[in-house]
Each structure stands twice: as structure tokens, then as C-alpha cells.
From TrEMBL:
Secreted among keywords: no
Annotated Ketoreductase domain residues: 4-182
Protein name: 3-oxoacyl-ACP reductase
Pfam families: adh_short_C2
Biological processes per GO annotation: monocarboxylic acid metabolic process
SUPFAM superfamilies associated with the record: NAD(P)-binding Rossmann-fold domains (SSF51735)
Native organism: Virgisporangium aliadipatigenens
NCBIfam families: PRK12826.1-2 (NF009466)
Amino acid sequence: MSQRVAIVTGAARGIGAAAARRLAASGHAVGVVDLTEDGGRETVEAITAAGGKAVAVGADVSDPAQVDAAVKRVVAEFGPVAVLVNNAGVLRDNLLFKMTDDDWDTVMGVHLKGAFLMSRACQSHMVEQRFGRIVNLSSSSALGNRGQANYSAAKAGLQGFTKTLAIELGQFGVTANAIAPGFIATEMTAATAARMGVDFEEFQKASAARIPVRRVGTPDDIGALVAFLAGDDAGFISGQVIYVAGGPLD
Ligand code: NAP
């Protein structure tokens, strides 16, 4: 079998970088998509240093023309896309009465429209191959979180999007699943701590105390599940939302 091609968005750092490394380690050639090509270089270097194949591509996932160009670039480099991980994300937290139109539109644009545009651009490759895996990054915030009306709506929306893709594309050998992480230590959660004026170490300790396994998550906790869902063994898992949070959530 020829090498499967994966695209991971927002793969310059954090969860996306871990997912890209894991997919490369399990034999995929990986398109590392992030806002700038430069941003993705470190992830590509880590993958190639470990003997894998990857290319960095700059694109804003909320922009249709940039998405189409990015997918074309990866296809030209490695061949048709078999695995798509919609991971790119931003926060624009604010209580509802302070949330601006731009806070709302930016979060919807990156998470929801970005996942839609990327999935639409990649699906024909998957359908033609009669094999595909789409993994969308939702969040425990989909269940509701103070200060995140925009983000929780987008992350809940991604769950409905995922289930619909599973229904439409299943007959072509394509599965779609969502991973909904709890607290994962990345620049995103570090920025939240900074915004709240809390030391990041203290923030993690306080969060860990509330998590049943008594630790916060790492990007690799999510990367490992992405790699599993992308593989042959996960072919009968589709339309699911898997919470990865160190314990059950309400
Ligand atoms: P992160 O460290 O902030 O990384 C997000 C990446 O996405 C960054 O490299 C960022 O690029 C990129 N990005 C932002 N906007 C983009 C756009 N329009 N087009 C392309 N790339 C874009 O975040 P993370 O913590 O790894 O989170 C990854 C995903 O998991 C997100 O969808 C997030 O919502 C979700 N998640 C995270 C947690 C958590 O606790 N960390 C929990 C639940 C869900 P720049 O650096 O250039 O902005």
C-alpha cells in the first residue's frame, strides 16, 4: 500500500503538532497547515528528523481560496489526502455582554467554517480512494463554559457537523469523529491563564486537582487518539464524540 497522506491544521504547535508527529510516526506523509509556512517549520523538522515525511503549508483555514490552494499544495507534494484533522483554533473569550461581533465571527470562522472548508476540499480525494478519516477537534466547552459563548457554540456545532459527515460519507469508506479534550497544557491554555492573571503552573495545579486522574492533559494524549482514529483499526467508529478529559464530564 502506498503511503497515506494526512493534513493537520493548526499543526505549528500544541495538539496539532502532536497529532502531526503521531500520524507521521504511524506512516503518514503529513501536510502541516498553519497560518504561515514558517510557523509549521518546527513541526516538519521534528517529523523529518524522526525519519518521517512532512511539508509546511501556510493558509488561513477560514479563507476558501487559501484552503483550496493549501490542499492542492499537499496533493501535489504527496498525493491525494486520506486523513484530515481539523484542529486549528483560536479563543476570543468574553462574557456575552462584552462579546463583540468580531469575537463571534473570528471563532466561528476558524473552528466551524474552517472545518467545513477543509472537509469539503478534501472529501473528493477520500471518496475516490474509498478510504478517509476526518477528525475534528471539539472541546469539553461544547457542554457550556462561562466566557465562551462563541467557542462553546462552535465546538458544539462541530459535533453536529461531524455526525453529518459520518452519515453522508460512511458509504464511501470515510469515517468522521470528534475529539473533545478537557484541559490540555498548550499555549492556548497558557494564554487563558495569562488573561486571568494567574501563573500557568498554579492554573494547571488547580485544574489537575479537579480532574479524576489528577493531572492535566498533554498534546500527546490527544495525538495518540488522532492516530488511532486515523488508522485501519478504527474503521467501524464513526460519528462519535470522544471526550478526553481525565474523567467523565457532566
Ligand atoms: P494552540 O496551541 O493555540 O494552537 C492552535 C494553532 O492553530 C496555532 O498554531 C495557530 O496559529 C493555529 N491557527 C489559528 N488560527 C488559524 C487559522 N485561521 N488557520 C490556520 N491555523 C490557525 O491550541 P491547542 O491548545 O493546541 O488547541 C488545538 C485545538 O484543540 C483547537 O481547536 C482547540 O480549540 C482545541 N482544544 C484545546 C484544548 C486545550 O485545553 N488546549 C481543549 C479543548 C479543545 P498561530 O499560532 O499562528 O495563531
